[in-house]
Amino acid sequence: MYTNKQRQVYHCIGLMFFLSVVMFTIIQIEHISIQKVSEPERIERQTRMEKEIDLQNKSTHPISVNFSTEIMQRMELLAEHPKESTTWDIISSNCSASLSFLSTEWFTSLNSDFKQFLLYRHCRYFPILMNHPVKCAGDVDLLMVIKSVITQYDRREVIRQTWGKEQTINGKNIKILFLLGTSSNEGERANHQKLLEYENYIYQDILQWDFMDSFFNLTLKEIHFLKWFSMYCGNTSYIFKGDDDVFVNVPNILEYLEASKDTKDLFVGNVLFKAYPIRNKMSKYYIPEVLYEKNYYPPYAGGGGFLMNGPLARKLYGACETLELYPIDDVFLGMCLEVLQVKPVQHNAFKTFGIVRNENSKMNREPCFFRDMIVVHKLLPPDLINMWSLIYSDLDCSKKI
Ligand SMILES: *[C@@H]1O[C@H](CO)[C@@H](O)[C@H](O)[C@H]1NC(C)=O
Ligand SMILES: *[C@@H]1O[C@H](CO)[C@@H](O)[C@H](O)[C@H]1NC(C)=O
Ligand SMILES: *[C@@H]1O[C@H](CO)[C@@H](O)[C@H](O)[C@H]1NC(C)=O
Ligand SMILES: *[C@@H]1O[C@H](CO)[C@@H](O)[C@H](O)[C@H]1NC(C)=O
Ligand SMILES: *[C@@H]1O[C@H](CO)[C@@H](O)[C@H](O)[C@H]1NC(C)=O
Questions:
Q1: pTM of the prediction?
Q2: Which of 86, 225, 230, 300 has its CA 20 to 30 A from that of 239?
């Protein structure tokens, strides 16, 4: 027979066992039901559970160990904002040419750039060579991303000195990044890559990916940026994306954005409606029917400079993922917008086509014109510097031009 003392001890052990089974069950149930609740509720619950587990830890309850590590892991997955540890997840450039249409008749009639594009069309993502994971940290109102190539350092330099300055205007935080691929030419790669690294070391404003910078690879630049933005810029409000040979009026952008605060899917630029693919085989931009069969492109904004908001950019990343790459970057983005059923908005302050064709046009050299614009294409470094100093001199624009 048991003594009283022994009986007490067994009672105690029995009770503890019962309690731990109950606790285990409760946690298990909560654990399962977690999958069915909404996101905020889920986070709230997990925080609560973590606290419970913490308490159990203190009483060195044996079943707590597994759950606490598992929950910690889930919490990390749930964290809404990107962590410092977020890394570009593509590590290999190894993608071989697809030879399936080499023997087709239409393929042999294409020019070599086009052939190159088609052979590598399925290679979507490449490793990142220069990254700035914390560029968007905190509170960025306007991120300006500029397409550039290694050799055009003079354009980048002048942009940094003029409209591309990282600064805060009326409390709006502005950042800049240049988007680059690698050089297509071996000599350039050897000589310029080191200079680029130094430039990036000084200015901390270059994103570079390991794909060849060529006209038909601009679409790669587009999707790499959208992916990058979705990974690192969860809190960024607006994006200006453009070329490195344009004039940009940042105060006008800010004014426009202030007035469009309530626009949900903001996408504005110099929009072409009903542009058509070029069917002349002699043209550099000839598009065979097998590549694009419709007569018209969806509406798209000229890639020289346009504005979009952060939430839309994140949606565009997903939308573009559903499409095969198209060799013209701004048309491709128009196709992604079409997937989302978002219509790009035309605005006359974006002049990304055609200004320069008429050499004698007053628009080419008239500072009062530039002062009222948002983007003007095209202005190379010496002209940009001149125009910049004219606009910010005591400019009298009351006279009719
Ligand atoms: C809980 O216990 C585990 C394992 O013993 C330990 O790794 C963890 O740091 C403890 N957590 C707390 C908050 O004490
Ligand atoms: C605890 O974790 C280990 C390793 O992660 C696993 O093998 C084991 O089944 C877990 N135990 C429980 C009760 O979940
Ligand atoms: C590239 O990938 C192919 C097959 O996936 C493999 O056979 C080849 O060795 C790889 N080359 C390099 C340089 O990694
Ligand atoms: C996101 O932006 C808001 C203001 O727009 C700011 O208060 C907040 O700290 C930012 N959050 C992060 C994680 O940067
Ligand atoms: C685009 O870049 C990839 C990777 O460097 C290259 O293999 C491909 O030939 C390029 N395509 C064009 C059209 O230049």
A1: 0.74
A2: 86
